[in-house]
Amino acid sequence: KLHSDLDKGVGTVKYTLAGDGAGTVFTIDETTGDIHAIRSLDREEKPFYTLRAQAVDVDTKKPLEPESEFIIKVQDINDNEPKFLDGPYVASVPEMSPVGAYVLQVKATDADDPTYGNSARVVYSILQGQPYFSIDPKTGVIRTALPNMDREVKEQYQVLIQAKDMGGQLGGLAGTTTVNITLTDVNDNPPRFPKSIFHLKVPESSHVGSAIGRIRAVDPDFGKNAEIEYNIVPGDGGNLFDITTDENTQEGVIKLKKPLDFETKKAYTFKVEASNLHLDHRFHSVGPFKDTATVKINVLDMDEPPVFSKPMYTMEVYEDTPVGTIIGAVTAQDLDAGSSSVRYFIDWKNDVDSYFTIDATEGTIATNELLDRESTAQYNFSIIASKVSNPLLTSKVNVIINVLDVNEFPPEISVPYETYVCENAKPGQVIQTVSAADKDLSPAGQRFSFRLSAEASNKPNFTVHDYRNNTAGIETRRNGYSRRQQELYFLPVVIEDSSYPVQSSTNTMTIRVCRCDSDGTILSCNVEAIFLPVGLSTGALIAILLCIVILLVIVVLYVALRRQKKKDTLMTSKEDIRDNVIHYDDEGGGEEDTQAFDIGALRNPKVIEDNKMRRDIKPDSLRFPRQRPPVEDNTDIRDFINQRLQENDGDPAAPPYDSLATYAYEGNGSVAESLSSIDSLTTEADQDYDYLSDWGPRFKILADMFGEEESYNPDKVT
C-alpha cells in the first residue's frame, strides 16, 4: 500500500505505478494507493520486481512528491521437486567386488531457493535394488552392498533412486531416476570339459596336417577371460597328433602330424589339457585354472594302394650290356587285410623310358636297348604299382639307373694346338705342352702316357717328354730350322690310358717353322715372307695393293658413268617424239642437219628406208633410182589438219601459250603405194633394174644377176 502525507482522503491525490511488471503483473488503486498482483508469481521465473510510485494532483496533474522506488521480492514456497538432469544412468562394476565398492554418483537439482527453508534440501534413497546396492543420502554415491556378486549368476541390475526435498520430511516433493548397473567379467572360472573321454574315428588315409576332430572345454567367463589353450599331455600316441585352438569357437582342433596305418596300430589314446591364457592372481586360491580330458582315436581301415619297400631305388649297369639283362628289381606290397597281388609298369613320359622294361609280376627291371654312357650317363624314370583287386589304387616310386663306364675310347689330345718352332731354336727347347682327354669316365688316378710313334722316333727333328702328370712337352732335337727347306713338320704322338683294356691313339701334330727375333718372339710364319725384300713388311705390301685396287675401281666407275650418261642422252633424243626446242650456239649444218629433231615419225617408213643414203661411203655417181612423180596436194591431210586446228582453238583446257601439235597421219594415199601383189606389174620383164648398178660395189652382184636375166630374155623387144 502506498500513501502520501498530502493525501487528506478527499480524492485530490492520484497514485501511479511504473517499472517491472507494472500494469501486467502488478496494478495500483489510483485513489487508495493499494498495490495488487493481477496474476500468479513464480520465484523460479523472477525472484523480485523493481517498481516506481508517485503521487500526482488530480486537477493539475503535477507530482505532489518526488518519485520513489521500491522492490517487491517474491517469497519462495516448495513448489519444485528435485530432478535428475543426467538420468537415466548406466554404470558397471567388476563381479566379485567387495562390499562398498564404488559404482556411481548421482545428483538431483531442486529449483527452489536453497537459502529459504528446506525447500531445496535433497535426500537420496534407493527404492529398488536392495540388498545389492546402497546409496549415500547426502552425496548420492552408489556402492555395492553384497559381496561376491557373480556375473555368471546375474549380470544386469536396475536400481531406482529417489531424491526428496524438505530434508526427506513428510510433505516434501520427490523425483526418481533409474541406474542400470552391469557386472563386468573377471577370470574367476576355470575351463571345464563337459565329459572326461572323447572318442574319435579317423580313416587311415587321412592326410598329414588335416583336422581329424574337435573337442571343447566350457568356460563361463567372457571375452579374453574365456580364451582357452589346449595342449596334448605327453604319452601314448601323442607324438602323432597336434592340437590348436579355434579362436572363433574356442574349440580344440586335433590335427594329424604323421600318417596313420591301420595295419600297424588300430587305436591311440592320449590326454588333452585345457587352460586359461589370462589368469587373475586374486583367484589363485580357487584352484588350478585348467582341466584334463582323455581322447581315444580309433583308426579306420581303408583300401590303400601298394607300398614300395624303398622311397627311391638306385641301380647300376655297365654300358653295352646285352639287351634283356636284369639290372635290379622293385618291390611293393599291399598292406591291407585282403593283401591283393601287385602289378608293375613303367610310367612312360618320353622315349628315354623305352631303354628299359619291367616284369609286371616280379618287378625286375631289364635293359631293352644297348646303353651308351657317353650319350646318357643316368636314367631317371618312375615305376607304378597297382593292386590287382583295385587297379585305380596306385603308387609311384622313382628309379635312378647309373650307366657305368667301359673303357672303349682311346685318349686324344684335348684341344687342337697351333705349334710353332723358331728357325733359331736350340736343342732341348720345349715348344708346346699338350694334355689329353678321354671320352670315357676316367676313374680316380687315371694316367695318360705320351710317346712318339715308332716311325718318328728315328727322325732327329722333335721328341716328346712325358711329365707323368697327364701332360707332355714337345722338345726340339736340332740346332736351328730352315723354312726354305721345310716349312711344316708332322709329329705323330701316341697317347695311351691306364684303364682295362688299354686304349691308345696316334695324334698327328702340325709344327710350323717361323722367323723369330733373338728373344724368341715370332715375327712371321708365312712362307711368302721369305721372298719379300728386306725392309718391306707384309702390312706395307697389303696397303699398296689396296691402293691400286681402289684406283682401278674409281676408273671403272668413271667410265661406266660416262657411258651411262651418253646412253641416256641418245635414248632421250630418240625416244622423245614430242616437240623439242633445241638451242644451238653454233651454226647448223644446213638442210642435211636433221639430228636436232627426228621427224621420221611423220614420214612413211618405206620411203625413209628407200631414200636412206650412206654417208660414210661416197657413191661412184650420184644417180638415184627412178622415182615416181610426186603426188599432188592431198586434200585429205589438209582437211584433217584444219579439223584438229579448230578443235585445239576451241578447247578450253588448252594451254595459254603456243604449242606444237604433231600428227603421224599420211592421208588416204601413200607415197609407198600398196604392197599388195595385185597392183604389181604383170611380168618381171617390165621391171627396170639398171639403177642397181648405181648403188655402188656392194650391189654389183645383184645388178649383174638381174642384168643377165634381162639380156637372156628372148621375149624382150629392144
From TrEMBL:
Keywords: Calcium, Cell adhesion, Cell membrane, Cleavage on pair of basic residues, Glycoprotein, Membrane, Metal-binding, Phosphoprotein, Repeat, Signal, Transmembrane, Transmembrane helix. It is found in: Cell membrane. It is a single-pass type I membrane protein. InterPro entries: Cadherin, Cadherin-like_dom, Cadherin-like_sf, Cadherin_CS, Cadherin_Y-type_LIR, Catenin-bd_sf. It holds the Pfam family Cadherin. It comes from the Eukaryota. Its main location: membrane. GO terms for biological process: adherens junction organization; calcium-dependent cell-cell adhesion via plasma membrane cell adhesion molecules; cell migration; cell morphogenesis; cell-cell adhesion mediated by cadherin; cell-cell junction assembly; homophilic cell adhesion via plasma membrane adhesion molecules. GO terms for cellular component: adherens junction; catenin complex. GO terms for molecular function: beta-catenin binding; cadherin binding; calcium ion binding. The chain crosses the membrane at residues 530-561. Residues 4-84, 85-193, 194-308, 309-413, 413-531 form the Cadherin domain. The keyword Signal applies. CDD domains: Cadherin_repeat. SUPFAM superfamilies: Cadherin-like (SSF49313). Cadherins are calcium-dependent cell adhesion proteins. They preferentially interact with themselves in a homophilic manner in connecting cells; cadherins may thus contribute to the sorting of heterogeneous cell types. This is Cadherin-12. It comes from Pedionomus torquatus (Plains-wanderer). The gene is Cdh12.
